[in-house]
């Protein structure tokens, strides 16, 4: 079945790492479907596994946060204070973070994607990447075979 949930790998994550992952899910995708939120979590963890990025969840989520509007996870560098005001969405983000790191969730259609963007923007890097799928308002990409990033 296309787009099936399968089990992923268990990832050791401290409470702080789980908080960073839930924060990314909440601020990047709380308006998306459950699948869309899982997809964002998967991109974060794919980056943790990729040698081109920091090797911790918090390191990935907050990479380049000092560069205003120049980081992958826009909430981390947009200059707007993060305030969690939707308790239901926050609880779901925390649940997804826990289930993903426990290996209970994995989206086959997202696979090893390391990038995504909203459908209403056209980032300069997108044409150099291989489009993998779209879930809701997010388009997911992976590196093209043989292409080195930055």
From TrEMBL:
InterPro entries named in the record: Cell_wall_hydrolase_SleB, SleB_dom1
GO molecular function terms noted in the UniProt entry: hydrolase activity
Domain Cell wall hydrolase SleB: 31-141
One Pfam family named in its UniProt record: Hydrolase_2
UniProt protein name: Cell wall hydrolase SleB domain-containing protein
Protein source organism: Devosia epidermidihirudinis
